[in-house]
Specification:
4-stranded antiparallel β-sheet, 11 helices, 7-stranded parallel β-sheet
Length: about 675
Amino acid sequence: MSKFSGWGVVRQLAAGLSLLMGMTLGQAQSTEPPTARVIVKLRASVVAQGAGQAQVAAVSSSEVRSYRDRVHTLGTRLGLPVEYQRTIGRGVHVAMARGVRSEQLAARLAAQPDVEYAVVDQLRQVSSTTPNDPLFPAGQTSPSPPDGQWYLQSPTTQASSPSTDLFVAAVNAVSAWDVLSRGIRVDNSHPVVVAVVDTGVRLDHEDLAGKFLPGYNMISDATRAGNGTGRSADPSDLGDALSSGEISANSSVYSGCSVRATSTWHGTQVAGIIGAQTDNAMGVAGLAWGAKILPVRVMGKCGGYDSDIIAGMLWAVGQPVTGVPTNLNPAQVINLSLGASGACSAAYRDAVATVNGLGAVVVASAGNNDGQAVESPGNCPGVIAVAGLRHVGSKVGFSALGPEVAISAPGGNCVNTNTGSLCLYPIMTTSNSGATTPVLHADGGSIYTGGLSNASLGTSFSAPLVSATAALILAQRPTLQPAAVRQLLLSTARPFPASGGTSGIGQCQAPSSTLTQAECYCTTSTCGAGMLDAGLAMAAVMAKAVPVITVTPAQAVVGGAITLSGTASVASPAGTTVSYAWVLEDGGGIVSALTGDPSSSQVSATPSAAGTFKVRLTVQDDTGAATSNFTIQTIEVAAAPVPASSGGGGGGALETDTLWWLLTLGAVGAGWRRTCAGRRP
């Protein structure tokens, strides 16, 4: 029988560094000089391998000593007390220095000729939000209670309550499971592995029994980890609640952090959406119920640093991380329900390129910032960024939006506004009953979210629906590469509705730093290709060819020839690709025509100015027209090459200077935190 916790969701705000004079009660204002923290990568001439290459050998102790010496040499050269902290991967390190800001240290290191990049090692938060919909306050007519896991139903299913709403945004899981029931799934003794890079998990939750592979706690700081040791082989979520006493006692560690009254159990919630046991007469159903979950703990008290998150990503796909045993169960999908505001840093670009190069799909939440720009790492190339939808298919108020969004999925919303009423359309999932520290299953710890006091809402919970669908795809065709999985997801997405939302809402607009957008009607330029449909994706994976476009060079520039290739396209399981058809869909005023035979596997273009243009590729295999498919890709052209060693760094959450965009609200992002704006689910 499902149990619902009674602990309340408390909004936490994290103040930005520029607002330290107005810190909220419970924050400790440190009088110590600033401590800079950066991720630095030495150039390929200094290390054995370049950016984005698969790293197959562990870093030796002699290499670590050499790296330490080189980092110290950099500090001496700059006249700064730079300290080597640890190595993330070959040539990539964490360095710190007192008396200087992180942005300043990153910029100075990035300017050195033997440094490929140096970026701020930002502090991230997970991406969910508290109920804050315009229809949420008291005064609305009394609604019916939630209709279970509505987001997994057929998109034409009508609520069983007196409400006449249709579940327009539901992901059609039952149809996807029907494909699985036809006996065409791959050997179940080799399930798809999905890495939940998050706050850790409660390993003893009754509805997740048998779903976890051996994970790891990648939080390097013992205080933030709350385990007294830092990194360890135990990925258990120990809670992320933070008291004023803890902040005062550890002012250097928690400088700028806010009190968090309750723990979120965020990783456990994400894991349940992806892979809770199904058809077991207990609790909730996981969308990818045949997948295994690899728990990677990177977020602790007051969030998590980029260096630990990146180390967790690399470890998850089997890459060596110094001082950590190699993961023997590499993930095919990585879920990142976390982030902070800002651009995608070189460190994340590097990590995502490595992960994609090893064949793993990366899915991230777009962020919860009331319709502003997609946050990092969701805005990184190679990442499938997911925005959040209301049950009727409109953009949920708290969700970020923008051209970096690949696809949208339900993020949960409440609708009803009566005090004490249950949230009507939350994302129901696994959690723990502990208010601050975990409660064992034997003592009643295994619970499910879903009520007003513990409703799961946010793009944190949109992303795992896409990760789970990617896992279903790979269960059928395990050889598909990330670009092909992405294309299947996008090409089978259902169109966004243009009606059915709250009266008076308009169309979503391009994000702006000065504009917040609550509920609005999505477009393909703001919310991605459409609404996730797991059923259509599973039908297509067994019957359709998958066109994939690769662009060389990856960063197109004005006046430079661009090669567009379709050779990475994949035929249907029973066929072989035999034909290609290229079309210039929209020249954008910068490309007048494609060069080369439009029926060949590749063509080229030379842009005359900065901007974007679109091409369409249709592929067909020898099984006939039924397996034909197409993709449209937008190619961005820069005026000049983007320097690899850009200082600073990006985040993408509710705060980056952020704030808790963990389960109950926003993120404490970047190295410093910002105030959380109101969320409107």
